[in-house]
Amino acid sequence: MRASLLLTLPLVAALTACGGSDGSTGSNDGGGEIAIAAGDTTCEVAKTTLASGKHTFDVKNEGKDVTEVYVYGRSSSGSDGDFDKVIGEVENIAPQTSREFPVELSGGEYEVACKPGQTGDGIRTKLTVTGEAAAKDDDAAYDREVEVTAKEYAFTGLEGFTAKVGEKIEFKLENTGTMQHELEILGPDGKDVGEVGPTDPGKDGEVILELKTAGTYTYLCGIGDHASRGMQGTFTVS
Fold it and tell me: If 0-12 CB within 10 Å is exposed, 13-18 middle and 19+ buried, where does residue 104 land?
């Protein structure tokens, strides 16, 4: 009888441990990594329905170009908003390499975008997250991105660009010229808001800026005489 009792106790302890482990999986911790296969013409997400909470996306670049991957939420709280609010991202993934990035998601609809060549709107895959929706979308890394190209002696990508007061914008600069260029943003008062510093030919850079004040902003290349030769312009924040 003593031997039977001793044999039973480890079994009870094991069952108790298993029960505790099962209880811990109820938290919305993402349940492990979610694979994304990013190709030149494809964006395959291993799981497209997730529980709300923290998730880690493991991106493998199966294409021939450097790529980047974004998770986008809607730009407004309604169901008709565009998917352009950046919730999480990973950039500069070389061909045949992998990178991870964590994202915390509340209940709602999202899109995963793979961007071969790191340009354009990307190849989109819809993502559904179950659970309670966030009361606010302040957790977004930034509201949207603007892709700007620099070369001798002009910027492209900011034509017709406008923003709302308080928006966080990621300005992405790609230098397709043959010399260094940069992108400086000046506020309505003429003071520096931020910049993408000197960027070598064939390289790119980015900066996230919150546009806090209404008015006319100026953008320019502050290297040498580049601004006076055409690398400058304005946009409006209202």
Answer: middle
Taking only the tens place, the pLDDT of each residue in 30-51 is 457 999 999 999 999 999 999 9
Q: Which domains does the chain have, with CATH numbers?
A: 33-130 (2.60.40.420), 144-237 (2.60.40.420)
DSSP E strands: which ranges in 78-203?
83-93, 98-105, 108-116, 123-130, 144-151, 154-156, 162-163, 168-175, 181-186, 192-199
Name which of 180, 125, 122, 166 is nearest 147 in CA terms.
Answer: 122
> Residue 215: which pLDDT band, with cuts at 50, 70 and 90?
very high
Task: Assess whether pLDDT exceeds 80 at residue 140.
Answer: no
- Cα angle for residues 73, 140, 25 (degrees, 5° grid): 80
User: What is the distance between the terminal CA atoms of the chain, rounded to a whole angstrom?
Assistant: 83
